[in-house]
Amino acid sequence: MNIHKAKGFRHALNKDNHPKMCLKDVRSAINERQTEVLHKAFVGFHPADAARILEPLNGSELANFIELIGPPRALEIFEFLDFQKQKETVENLMPEALAQLFANMSPDDRTDLVKELGTDFQDRVLGLLIHKERQDLFKLLTYSEDQAGAYMTTRFASVEPDYSIRTALDRLRIQAPTKETIYYVYVVDDQLKLLGFVSLRDLIMSRPEVRVGDIMVTNIISVQVDDNIEHVANKMARYDFLALPVLDTKGRLVGIITFDDILDVIQREATEDMYKLAGMNVGEQISSSVARIVSNRLPWLFLNIGTSLLAANVITTFGGTIEKVIALAALMTVVATLGGNSGNQALTVVVRSMAMGDTTGQRRSLIILKNIAVGLINGFTCGMVIAAVSYLWFDNLWLSIIAWIAMTANQIIAGLFGSLIPMALKRFNMDPAHGSSILVTTLTDIGGFMIFLGLASLLINELMAG
Amino acid sequence: MNIHKAKGFRHALNKDNHPKMCLKDVRSAINERQTEVLHKAFVGFHPADAARILEPLNGSELANFIELIGPPRALEIFEFLDFQKQKETVENLMPEALAQLFANMSPDDRTDLVKELGTDFQDRVLGLLIHKERQDLFKLLTYSEDQAGAYMTTRFASVEPDYSIRTALDRLRIQAPTKETIYYVYVVDDQLKLLGFVSLRDLIMSRPEVRVGDIMVTNIISVQVDDNIEHVANKMARYDFLALPVLDTKGRLVGIITFDDILDVIQREATEDMYKLAGMNVGEQISSSVARIVSNRLPWLFLNIGTSLLAANVITTFGGTIEKVIALAALMTVVATLGGNSGNQALTVVVRSMAMGDTTGQRRSLIILKNIAVGLINGFTCGMVIAAVSYLWFDNLWLSIIAWIAMTANQIIAGLFGSLIPMALKRFNMDPAHGSSILVTTLTDIGGFMIFLGLASLLINELMAG
């Protein structure tokens, strides 16, 4: 591929139509080590787009690409690669390129990646870093995936309160290239205790001789290193900050979390909750292989086999009654289905509200009572409709009455368990979304069958008389 | 309340424990028009927190508060109030305060609010605005709720390419107080055509005599005014920009959308999809009243009555068969339940992937084929388990074989419709999440009952022989 071709190639990719069509050219340019061609081809691309185009390459090809392109461009693109691809790439990098890459990666992303590498490789990477970076990495490695510390970057801009605005701006210009953001500048004392912050906007609008301490915002919204990341995400969404400072237990500023990481967290957490509510694990994408999809969904179906057999067992218990009035077999599924639907409505609202932090300050008992009341009203109303339809259909008054009562009772069960189960799970520090949908459906199935068929058995004489 | 009391009051609120406990004091300070006390009480509070504290006040009290506190503080707090409260407040404001508030609100928020007001009141508000603001408002009012135009602000910072960095920074200092953000500065020609952008970071790091046109980024990621906001949100999440420029059909810069609005959009869209997948409308919160909850959930239950009666009708069709082999009544619910579960798994992945923009470039037919294959594998596996359990339970080989076949077939139906329905809805420009869960469940219920009971009817002699 010559430079003339490279231009056409860039143009084709830019249209965003068929980014795959020119992958062959990229590949051959990498193999032939045509650095300049590659540079020209990717000029002006946003690194996210470049990463998307390169995604189909294997680890060794990507490593060659990174080495040919060199910093800082290679790093920008690398950070947008899929996690698995990043891993494959670094495993193929030469030591020098590896050292450069790791030294310049943003600390939170670096930590995520190092966590995924084998211990041998971890040691190799640690050996390549300077002392301070190594210490940072060790610190970040100690946080679990759902803690604020795992998402923070240690590259924040800071100044001291006695600086003049002029000095602060001069320092910022020096700090800028290595900082994640300079739009918020944190004011710390010599113990690193956070005193306040100033925005770059305020800095450039103030007179140069003013003291930073005199214009800084002192009422600081901050988070703790061990705060749950979902809590951090809600805080950021509520206050509209570009970044939140992260403090350790002694109130010292140890990092900041920026809005772009939080955007990802919010999207991922929502996906997780949706998947869990549908009875699935989270490791599936639309592009996943059949094997991957099966392994993601099958375990939950196995669980569902168990729970549905429990419900089936209730039905066989009342087999004699059903044999006598076969309409029961039809109506029992209506009662159970509507119960499952209502239970999941309540469940979804409670799980989502918990994730958004909206349940704080709401009394748990009130939430449950309201859902029971809703179940009573909805059950009574829907039960009335079912009773009317089934009267027209089967011409059996007792059957209608039993369906009405069972429907009302089962909707109350749905409201109760739909709200109680996620709150109970959370109370015991378990995930309120995980498995709760199957649990609620099972309980409303069993409840629906038991009440409906149980009442029918008790009133079998009236029922058979019509 | 004197100022000494005000301090204690502030302290109590600051602890974030019982923000309601001092509402009485706030109320009496408002009624007694103690401006200074109110100012002192809310000093240093983030406006989001102040708004949360004031939320229980009624529209007239809030209007008094706004008038007492005055701009700019009042506006900051007002913008964090709940939408309904904002509406009640403005309806109680004196004309002068109303004019100030509306003149200074950010254009996108102002538009949202004006849309909600009665036509009489709209005219009043329009009369209070200066010509340019009125034009802006008219323009923004034309966009629908899901279009980029409805979320943009027209207050962006812009410069011309021939400015030196020094001039650009000087202009920024003047523009800053009225702009939503100055961290991205857009470079436009005299026709307002977008040429590029520079970040404030780049501006303060460059030499003052350099031309803006020489350092601006020209490969611009932008959106169109009529783009769907979900698309905009995905774009922002992918590229990690603080703001995205919004262009009209002629390529002119008409506004920008900032990350904080997109954070809200992403959270709201995720909530909407979850609610829709659970068969609910979106207008419900954990704090909603029972009446509100009922009106939100009941319509969907009515729909579900209809669909479940369809399934029940299938059962009665095979009433004679069930009467002969009552175990069918138990196992048919297992087949149907597992089908519903699988259908919703497929549905959730497809709906979520569509919302995240992950389906672009994926072939629809391939997605459906994969889900059918998954259904075949999961159905065969789960069917084997059900067959084994039912053999031990009912000691009837034919029953086990029929359950196995029905299970496999119904899981294929679940994979097919779970993936096909949301894609078909989207194809016809309908919401892929709305109602699709009930549709998929109904189809797997009917499919499960029909195949299982149909096979049983065909093989009734073998079945009764055991």
Characterize this entry briefly:
With 466 residues, chain A is mainly alpha-helical.
Structural features, described:
Two copies of one chain form a homodimer. Chain A has 466 residues and is mainly α. Chain A has helices at 3-14, 23-31, 35-42, 47-54, 59-69, 73-79, 83-90, 95-104, 107-116, 119-128, 131-141, 165-175, 200-205, 212-215, 229-239, 259-277, 290-317, 319-324, 327-355, 364-394, 397-427, 436-458, 460-465, and strands at residues 156-159, 181-188, 194-199, 223-224, 243-247, 253-258. Helix content of chain A is 66%, strand content 7%. In chain A, the strands form two sheets. Chain A has a three-stranded mixed β-sheet. A three-stranded mixed β-sheet of chain A has the order 4-5-6. In chain A, a hairpin with a 5-residue loop joins strand 2 (181-188) and strand 3. The first copy, chain A, is elongated, with a radius of gyration of 30 Å. Chain A starts with a helix and ends with a helix. The model of chain A is unreliable at 1-21 (pLDDT under 50). Chains A and B meet through helix 12, helix 13, helix 15, helix 16 and helix 17 of A and helix 12, helix 13, helix 15, helix 16 and helix 17 of B.
Layout: helices, strands, pairs:
The structure is a homodimer of 466-residue chains.
Chain A: H1 3-14, H2 23-31, H3 35-42, H4 47-54, H5 59-69, H6 73-79, H7 83-90, H8 95-104, H9 107-116, H10 119-128, H11 131-141, E1 156-159, H12 165-175, E2 181-188, E3 194-199, H13 200-205, H14 212-215, E4 223-224, H15 229-239, E5 243-247, E6 253-258, H16 259-277, H17 290-317, H18 319-324, H19 327-355, H20 364-394, H21 397-427, H22 436-458, H23 460-465
Parallel strand pairs in A: 1-2, 4-5
Antiparallel strand pairs in A: 2-3, 5-6
Helix pairs in contact in A: 1-3, 4-6, 5-6, 5-7, 9-11, 15-16, 16-19, 17-22, 19-20, 19-21, 19-22, 20-21, 21-22
